[in-house]
Design a protein that fits this description.
The protein is about 25% helix and about 45% strand. The protein is of the alpha+beta class. The longest helix has 18 residues. The chain is elongated.
């Protein structure tokens, strides 16, 4: 198991299960905020990681690894209305259903942390909603003696 959870797994999962939005790449949150969308899009972004040393045996360290990531749902929306409300509710539900509880090799099942509306951007006419998840696992490191 690696220290960092491979978010490509989540992108592939969403691409295979969410049909009313496309999964796109973003290097960071600013990239998501700055570009207007013309149809619903999903972006997977890392948020944080935490590594806690759980066991120390001579020559081996074990870490409880926790990665927190977000699926950003972005829809075109000039102003809040019934259509955008229905669309964001459906996408929120679809993303949570697709991701929460999935388990990948070496990791515990993914847990839903929280969801929240981030912004209604007047410059791009985008509504951005964040579904936040976390995943944990154990990572063992062999101590390396350096000369």
């Amino acid at each position: 198991m690696a220290f960092n959870f491979d978010l490509n797994n989540i992108e592939a999962l969403l691409s295979a299960t969410i049909f009313n939005a496309t999964v796109e790449f973003a290097s960071d949150f600013n990239h998501v905020r700055e570009h207007a969308v013309h149809s619903a899009q999903l972006f997977v972004l890392p948020l944080a990681d935490d590594n806690t040393n759980t066991n120390e045996v001579h020559g081996v360290d074990e870490y409880q690894v926790k990665d927190v990531f977000a699926v950003m749902i972005v829809i075109p929306c000039a102003a809040g209305n019934a259509h955008s409300d229905i669309q964001i509710k459906q996408l929120r539900s679809d993303v949570k259903d697709a991701v929460a509880g999935c388990q990948f090799a070496g990791w515990n099942p993914i847990k839903l942390d929280k969801g929240r509306t981030i912004e209604l951007n007047k410059q791009t006419n985008n509504l951005i909603y964040q579904c936040q998840f976390n995943v944990t696992g154990l990572h063992t490191v062999t101590v390396k003696v350096m000369p």
